[in-house]
């Protein structure tokens, strides 16, 4: 089982949104489970509505586990990072959020990991934020996840059941980049 951990100690940085979106994408071809390690349980809170298995442990027979994590540096995090095949670190496109990544980035040294820009907006120039992120010397996923209604609604509707083809393509591109990092 491949384990993809989504981590960033800032709340509101699209961790749970990405976890669900990636899981919905992967479930088209793989046996996928979601693990919500957030004690505030954002995904756990509505797991009966999510068409994906939300599990408490990784004993089941799945191809891929997507692991969501809480908006603080939990003491579980070192163990979660150690066991992950890939750590995906979402970052909103602003300077404060970019600087705030230093803690989590210090923890993923030697792991396969990448930063993905999230909640990006069309035509907003974020080259200064990208320059800041480059200083971390961690790969930056080429595809960002833009601001879209299909993502804001992901807890209620699978974006792959909507006609938002752009959202579907973005998520698939992110998945493919993660796969090539895991296999590379
Ligand atoms: N790409 C996006 N487009 C639109 N809304 C988004 C996007 N990513 C996150 N959101 C919204 O932003 C809020 C915070 O996202 P969430 O995934 O809960 O962050 P986290 O899990 O990191 O705290 C939620 O209301 C979510 O619906
Ligand atoms: Mg969350």
Written overview of the protein:
There is one protein chain. This protein is an alpha/beta fold. It has helices at 15-26, 77-83, 95-99, 102-107, 127-134, 149-152, 165-183, and strands at 2-6, 32-36, 53-55, 64-68, 86-91, 113-120, 145-146. The mean pLDDT is 95. The chain has one domain: P-loop containing nucleotide triphosphate hydrolases (Rossmann fold, 3-Layer(aba) Sandwich), CATH 3.40.50. It is 33% helix and 18% strand. Residues 11-17, 42, 71, 118-119, 145, 147-148, 151-152 line the site of adenosine-5'-diphosphate.
What is the element layout, followed by pairings?
Blueprint: E1 2-6, H1 15-26, E2 32-36, E3 53-55, E4 64-68, H2 77-83, E5 86-91, H3 95-99, H4 102-107, E6 113-120, H5 127-134, E7 145-146, H6 149-152, H7 165-183
Parallel strand pairs: 1-4, 1-5, 2-3, 2-4, 5-6, 6-7
Helix pairs in contact: 1-7
The protein binds adenosine-5'-diphosphate and magnesium ion (MG).
Residues 11-17, 42, 71, 118-119, 145, 147-148, 151-152 line the site of adenosine-5'-diphosphate (ADP).
Give a short overview.
It is built from seven helices and seven strands.
Number of strands: 7
The H-and-E topology, N to C, reads as EHEEEHEHHEHEHH
Query: What ligand molecules are bound, each kind once?
Result: adenosine-5'-diphosphate, magnesium ion
SS class: alpha/beta
Roughly how many Å is the radius of gyration?
Answer: 15 Å
Low-confidence stretches at least 5 residues in length (pLDDT < 50)? Answer: none
Major sheet? 7 strands, parallel
Tally of helical runs: 7
Mean pLDDT figure: 95
Sheet with most strands: strand arrangement: 3-2-4-1-5-6-7
Which CATH-level-2 architecture? 3-Layer(aba) Sandwich
Determine the strand fraction and express it as a percent band: 15-25%
Q: Estimate nothing, just give the exact number of structural domains.
A: 1
Distance separating the two termini: 17 Å
How helix-rich are the residues, as a percent range?
25-40%
Instruction: Write the CATH homologous superfamily.
Output: P-loop containing nucleotide triphosphate hydrolases
């Amino acid at each position: 089982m491949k384990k993809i951990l989504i981590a960033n100690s800032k709340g509101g940085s699209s961790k749970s949104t990405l976890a669900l979106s990636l899981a919905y994408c992967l479930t088209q071809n793989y046996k996928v489970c979601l693990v919500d390690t957030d004690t505030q349980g954002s995904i756990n809170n509505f797991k009966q509505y999510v068409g994906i298995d939300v599990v408490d442990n990784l004993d089941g027979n799945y191809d891929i586990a997507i692991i969501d994590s809480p908006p603080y540096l939990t003491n579980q995090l070192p163990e979660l990072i150690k066991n992950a095949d890939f750590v995906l670190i979402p970052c909103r496109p602003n300077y404060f959020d970019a600087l705030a990544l230093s803690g989590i980035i210090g923890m993923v040294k030697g792991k396969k990991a990448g930063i993905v820009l999230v909640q990006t907006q069309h035509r907003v120039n974020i080259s200064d934020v990208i320059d800041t992120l480059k200083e971390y010397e961690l790969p930056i996923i080429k595809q960002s996840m833009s601001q879209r209604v299909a993502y804001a609604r992901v807890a209620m509707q699978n974006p792959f059941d909507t006609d938002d083809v752009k959202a579907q393509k973005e998520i698939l591109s992110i998945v493919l980049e993660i796969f090539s990092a895991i296999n590379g």
